[in-house]
Amino acid sequence: MKKLTLIVLVFCSAIAYGQNKDVEVKDVEYLKVIELADNLFPTIEIERQEYKLISINNMVIKSSDYQGPHIWHLTYKLKSIIPDDENSIIGAGGEIFIEVNLIENKAKLLGFGE
After folding, report:
1. What is this structure's pTM?
2. Chain CA centroid to CA 33, Å
3. CA angle, residues 19, 25, 27, in degrees to nearest 5
């Protein structure tokens, strides 16, 4: 499943590159960030396929929390509490928060939701 996700992302990146050459660098970064985060799951003994990536944020924010463009935060949510239809309520909790440092090529667990 991980290889299929990576192939799909590479394909989407290639399409985006053909449309806008400015997105090439960020697309490569996204791929690396997701790969590093996904590789963390076995070390925390959690099945990656049970979770959906719901957000990925680059921490290049001008504030006292500034961490730099090499730091990314990802949020995964347990698929079983995400409803199939848009009118249902999403279950509370079930998140995994991960930080990826591209300079160190490392991912670390930040915590869990509720």
Report:
1. 0.72
2. 7
3. 70
